[in-house]
Amino acid sequence: MLWFTEHWTENVGLTVRATEVKRIQSKYQEILILDTPEFGKMLVLDGLIQTTEKDEFIYHEMLAHPAMLMHKKPERVLVIGGGDGGTVREVLKHETVKEVHLCEIDEEVIIVSEKYFPSIAGKLKDPRVKIFIEDGNRFLEEKKDYYDVIIMDSSDPVGASEVLFSEDFYKKVKQSLRKDGIMVAQTESPVLQENYFKKAYSQITKVFRNVGVYLAYVPTYPSGMWSFTIASDYVDVSSASVNKSRIDRLETRYFCDKIFDCLFALPKFVQDMLKKP
Ligand code: AAT
Predict the structure, then answer these.
(1) What pTM did the predictor assign?
(2) Where does spermidine bind (predicted)?
């Protein structure tokens, strides 16, 4: 019997029992695949839980669907990070999609996910998907005015993904979007990573005219309360409406029309964090 702990801060962590552990060292990070009785298979990068079979649907649905729905006709989509394939799987549920580009820095994450997490990575072989093994920041330099939706499914802002939380990076994201494009990023926990959360929000508001923050409950991410920041210059994200039949056609387990209707209903303490000092 083995217990794995993700240290959420210096003072608190999540401990999960694992029955089996596989370890792979890639060029970029240590990859662990744990078999856990509670959460099923779990993917851990450099000690941080990225995804688990039991709760991945919550994060992936909530990351992908609001932005996809707020766009009238999303055809070209880019996912940065997200080598496990969960976000790509959700994006492909939208019938208008013609092309999904996945830009993941670490090829090993994709190989491991296809081998051990078929229910998450299974759609990476879809003919609409093209995979680029590259740093997301570099990748965007060559793509101007191309995507309808860009989704930042990146690791926590340390190491290789730190740059993906900077103002300069969000400027590149904006240039890579078509006129009515929308971007969304996972932006950490307001409870345990308040500084990262506020920083991401402030950088994104420097670059985009319309910005909104919403939350979801992800049990295996620090504190469980997880934030997403969605932004666009031309789409007023906070008042975007959507045809309910588009929502009903998505086969989801967490996201639904009621959640979409009150997407931006934030607890007061989170609203306060977003007020300018
Ligand atoms: N789908 C939920 C899993 C992730 S994975 C984040 C991915 O981002 C990792 O596979 C990592 O290799 C990749 N990545 C990191 N930096 C870059 C970069 N610069 N360019 C492209 N890909 C990158 C998200 C987990 C959220 C964790 C919450 N605690």
Answers:
(1) 0.97
(2) 60, 84, 153-156
